[in-house]
Amino acid sequence: ILSHGKQVDDLKDLVPTPIDRSRMTVVSKVAPEQSLLSCSELLHLKNLVNLLNQTPPAILSSSAVTPSLVDEDYDDDCDTLSTTSTKMPTKTATWKDRFEQLLTFRAIQGHVNVPYDYAENPALAQWVKRQRHQRKLLDEGRHSNLTPYRLEQLESIGFCWDSRQAHWLDRFYELQSYQEQHGHVRVSKRQDTTRSLAVWLKRQRHQGRLFLQGKPTGNNMTKERLTMLIRLGVKFS
């Protein structure tokens, strides 16, 4: 045991440290019954304690939230996922929710190019549009919600990042559905439901002929697009 830097063998030999009264500060005595908080502060503290007592322990536990849930399920620009029951409140649709909807769309349609005017699920169409915007921000070196995990997931299913290419694919898949239904690609201009598709197809034939002749098409026709149209039965002669 050390006392003032010297070793001692008995507790009786310890010398207490003298009190320097000049360094002491005198403070007023606070009565035990006197509160240091205002009425509003006391009420706020009481409500906070009641709220904590009503909160399940699983929610308060830090282990209830995993890094993967925060990183991949949370969406900064998420939307609402409506429910069929009026008694149940709407909940926030996470990125994972929309991605699973996209997988369902692919299972039905055979591709992941959701049209901008997809009436069956407009929220999914808007989500797809946002993913392309987030990719653009990422390419520009700006803040983006498109994490490496999300980027990998979308690219693994053939997601189209080019909005112009996506618009072209919208029309192509519409033409493909028409061919499957009618057995040909002679789209009529006389019907209101197919007039815009017929105009698009006419423009593709024109661009295709220019491409085959080696003339400039303004990047409107590529070898890949031409091959897809020919396989579908489009004639360019």
How is this structure best summarized?
Helices cover 49% and strands 4% of the residues. It is mostly helical and 237 residues long.
The general outline is elongated
The first-to-last residue Cα distance is 106 Å
Main sheet: strands, sense, barrel? 2 strands, antiparallel
Strand content: under 5%
Number of strands: 4
Helices, by number, come to 9
The whole-number mean of residue pLDDT values reads 78
Helix and strand sequence = EEHHHEEHHHHHH
Uncertain residue ranges: 58-71, 82-90
Protein structure class = mainly alpha
Verbal overview:
It is a single chain. The protein is mainly α. Helix content is 49%, strand content 4%. It contains nine helices and four strands, in the order ββαααββαααααα. The strands form two sheets. It has a two-stranded antiparallel ribbon with strand order 1-2. A two-stranded antiparallel sheet has the order 3-4. The chain is elongated, with a radius of gyration of 35 Å.
